[in-house]
Write a structure and sequence with these properties.
This protein is an alpha/beta fold. It is built from 16 helices and 21 strands. It folds into three domains: about 150 residues, 3-Layer(aba) Sandwich (Alpha-D-Glucose-1,6-Bisphosphate, Chain A, domain 3); about 220 residues, Alpha-D-Glucose-1,6-Bisphosphate, Chain A, domain 3 (3-Layer(aba) Sandwich); about 90 residues, TATA-Binding Protein (2-Layer Sandwich).
Length: about 475
């Protein structure tokens, strides 16, 4: 059981290595034990669970297996009738008042991975207090399982549509009528994931022209990782420029994150995606509330919050921490540097499809091209260039690196003194010119992430190289 550990957003492992049918059954039983033992006092409409799955190899079979264990434990399971976005599962839980739900996905990880995300009764990511319970129950009780046909006959497993209600909500949140009237030309990359052609479907029948690529099922994801960053979005970026599209949008493997390609063939960073969405909610939709970003967030968000008198929160990496704050406080928007954003009056969960539509809505409401919107942001708040480098890092060096950063931290980075160090999650070194470098070990992969932000791209890349050399020297 020692190999099954829940990281920043669920448990992920290599298919047929640790992610096996036997281990999936063990996790299912531990979740069933948690529901029986720890969810008795929850005020929910029905003690049912939702089970969704993505387009990865065997995801549908893993989902069926989870349903077979839940049903055998007397927990009614609603199994999706197709591959669905993670936010569709979260929306179904909250909308129907269920006790929780499972999403079979490894999100943006390589095709050889699969995973299990647990969404709690509030429709958001489970916090550490819940996932630790799962781990504590692993192997403690005998696995109960029945056949799918038997459980369907008993009414303990039901196959249902989980996407339609979610799409209906999105249509009520974004101004679909306005978007259909616009003459925007948009290219959407579904990255072979669960984003499918839903953006095109939502805007069908209007003046807005939507073209979609990679919306077919391909468990190998065309040889790329379904994460909406370069080089994975090279084709989207090139086609957006060559086809003279107003904008390119991409959703990741389970459609809870958004990538944005610009007409000039460049990509918008996740920081800028969140900044644009925040300003849209504030200026165009006249909404208010607090703002949450993770420790590797941008000073741009901080400046926007100061100007508009908004409270800003900073969390460790992992959307479960953002979700926790969204449940407690009046939050307008919460997001990560990876393009995952959640919104007020929605679910406390990232939603790539809704994020994409809101960016289109901003362009339509302002009647401006995305490049003009970005130029106005730079003019008012200054330029912030963000970069990230993912390095394979040996397990035997990880503890040594963290100890070195704690005991002998860098005092100067590229000629600028370090004036502040944050250790909320990894090590973030902030310099006197507001540039910064952060080193953090991934919670789901054997990777060291090096982050950097600076006033210009050249310096941001220089900081990344500084961080790489620092990690190599340990």
């Amino acid at each position: 059981m020692g190999g099954i550990k829940f990281g920043t957003d669920g448990w992920r492992a290599v298919i047929s290595d640790e992610f096996t049918f036997d281990n999936v059954k063990k996790v299912a039983q531990s979740v069933a034990d948690f529901i029986h033992n720890d969810c008795k006092g929850l005020k929910v409409k029905e003690r049912k669970v939702v089970i969704g799955y993505d387009t990865r190899f065997l995801s549908d079979k893993y989902a069926e297996l989870m349903a077979c264990v839940f049903g055998a434990n007397g927990i009614k399971a609603v199994l999706s009738d197709r591959a669905v976005p993670t936010p569709s599962v979260s929306f179904a839980i909250k909308d129907r008042g269920y006790v929780g739900g499972i999403m079979i996905t490894a999100s943006h990880n390589p095709a050889r991975y699969n995973g299990i995300k647990y969404k709690a009764y509030y429709g958001g990511s489970a916090g550490p207090e819940i996932t630790k319970k799962f781990e504590s129950y692993l192997g403690k009780s005998e696995i109960k399982i029945k056949s799918l046909d038997e459980l369907k006959a008993e009414g303990l497993v039901v196959i249902d549509d989980l996407i339609s209600a979610h799409l209906a909500f999105i249509k009520s949140y974004a101004d679909i009528k306005l978007l259909k009237k616009s003459k925007l030309k948009v290219l959407v990359d579904s990255m072979y994931g669960t984003g499918n052609d839903y953006i095109s479907m939502l805007l069908k029948g209007g003046n807005c022209k939507i073209d979609t690529i990679h919306n077919e099922k391909n468990p190998s994801f065309g040889g790329i990782n379904p994460e909406p960053i370069l080089p994975n979005l090279k084709e989207l970026a090139e086609k957006t420029k060559k086809g003279k599209y107003d904008i390119g949008l991409a959703t990741d493997g389970d459609a809870d994150r958004l990538g944005v390609a610009l007409p000039n063939g460049k990509l918008l960073t996740g920081h800028k995606v969140m900044s644009v969405l925040l300003l849209h909610l504030l200026e165009d939709k006249k909404m208010r509330g607090g703002v949450i970003q993770t420790i590797c967030g941008t000073f741009l968000i901080e400046k926007i919050c100061k100007k508009h008198g908004l409270k800003m929160y900073e969390t460790p990496v992992g959307f479960k921490y953002i979700c926790e704050l969204m449940l407690k406080d009046d939050i307008l928007i919460g997001g990560e540097e990876t393009g995952g954003v959640a919104f007020k009056d929605s679910i406390p969960e990232r939603d790539g499809i809704l994020s994409g539509l809101l960016i289109l809505e901003m362009m339509a409401m302002k009647k401006k091209k995305i490049m003009d919107i970005l130029k106005s942001i730079d003019k008012e708040y200054g330029t912030y260039e963000y970069k990230r480098l993912d390095l394979k890092y040996p397990d035997e060096k990880k503890a040594k690196l963290m100890a070195s950063l704690s005991n002998n931290p860098p005092k100067v980075i590229l000629g600028h003194p370090v004036v502040d160090v944050k250790t909320t999650d990894g090590f973030k070194f902030i310099c006197d010119d507001r540039s910064w470098m952060m080193l953090r070990l991934s919670g789901t992969e054997p990777i060291l992430r090096v982050y950097a932000e600076a006033p210009d791209e050249k310096k941001a890349l220089g900081i990344l190289e500084f961080g790489r050399k620092l990690s190599d020297s340990v």
